[in-house]
Amino acid sequence: MSPRYRDFTEDDYRPRPNRRGSRPRTKERPAYESAVTGMITAVDRGRYRAVVLDGAEDRTVTGVRAARLRRTALVPGDRVDLVGDTSGAEGSLARIVGLQPRRTVLRRSADDADETERVIVANADQLVIVTATADPAPSEGLIDRAMAAAFDAGIEPLLAVTKLDLAPLDDIVERFGATGIDIVPCGLGPDGRVRTEELRPRLEHRLSVLLGHSGVGKSTLMNALLPQAERATGAVNDVTGRGRHTSSSALALPVGADGWVVDTPGVRSFGLAHVDPDSVVAAFADLVPATADCPKGCTHLADSPGCALDAWVAQGRAGEAGPARLASLRRLLAGLRG
């Protein structure tokens, strides 16, 4: 052994100084007792807009996530804890240090087999499913899927129908009237403006989210409800029959008495990989009574022995739309089974 190390003992060891400092790390988190509560209204490239809900006059602040929330997705409707500069003055920046428990979560996946969920909005009370009577034609599959997602999340669904000047409401009422979902006409009035008098009172005192395919008139409806929204609008593609995306991000705005409405980008698909099959069945209120006569463990699919849904529909107890409704239900359930 080299004489240099022959007499070396543990007492001679000196640890190398920590380049990041000598303060020991701690798992204790700051209490942030001075934090104020805010609601996220918009998300834009790492910056979050939030309205401060401290009992005083509402003010909008811009904030960034603290490091502890770096992997936490924040969406419109989220209630968060804010510290730092919460004055809302131009150029000020607050820090989001906490996410409060969510009452409800509306989410979707890319398809029924995709396990990756995307949260659309938090703490919503009502899902306003927007559909047009024509141009583009109503997507009955999307309506059924959105209703199922709403029931699964504990959110009340509502159907807002636009473009009544192009086609009557009759077909939509025939298809969904027996479900118990409220159907609200929002077409053009005699003055050429979008009718909002029936929808507006339903948005007060609650957080609502507008959802629908591109081109159905969501942004037009939003602008009629709230002219200050200034949401971009577009036409339907003549070749594909699909709308063009005009709203690129979700935005929450106040409406009426203590109400908030969230406009979302148009969706092309609405996967239900996260939804319980019982919630899917619950979305078909016109078929639910028949399931009481189904055997235990019935999957309600066409190959399920003893399923009572076929007889229920054959007897006309689900109305004229019964066969189409049953086919839609079974498509959704089959998709979840993979």
Describe the protein's architecture and organization.
The chain has 338 residues and is α/β, with parallel strands linked by helices. It starts with 35 loop residues before the first strand and ends with a helix. It has helices spanning 140-153, 170-176, 218-225, 277-282, 309-314, 322-337, and strands at residues 36-44, 47-52, 59-65, 79-84, 94-99, 105-109, 117-122, 126-132, 156-162, 182-185, 207-211, 251-255, 259-263. The chain has a six-stranded mixed beta sheet. It has a five-stranded mixed β-barrel with strand order 1-2-3-5-4. Helices cover 17% and strands 23% of the residues.
Short structural summary:
The chain is an alpha/beta fold. It contains six helices and 13 strands. Helix content is 17%, strand content 23%.
Itemize the secondary structure elements and their pairings.
Elements: E1 36-44, E2 47-52, E3 59-65, E4 79-84, E5 94-99, E6 105-109, E7 117-122, E8 126-132, H1 140-153, E9 156-162, H2 170-176, E10 182-185, E11 207-211, H3 218-225, E12 251-255, E13 259-263, H4 277-282, H5 309-314, H6 322-337
Descriptive labels:
338 residues, alpha/beta, 6-stranded mixed beta sheet, 5-stranded mixed barrel, 17% helix, globular
Please give the largest β-sheet: 6 strands, mixed
Structural classification: alpha/beta
Shape: globular
Q: What amount of the residues lies in strands? A: 15-25%
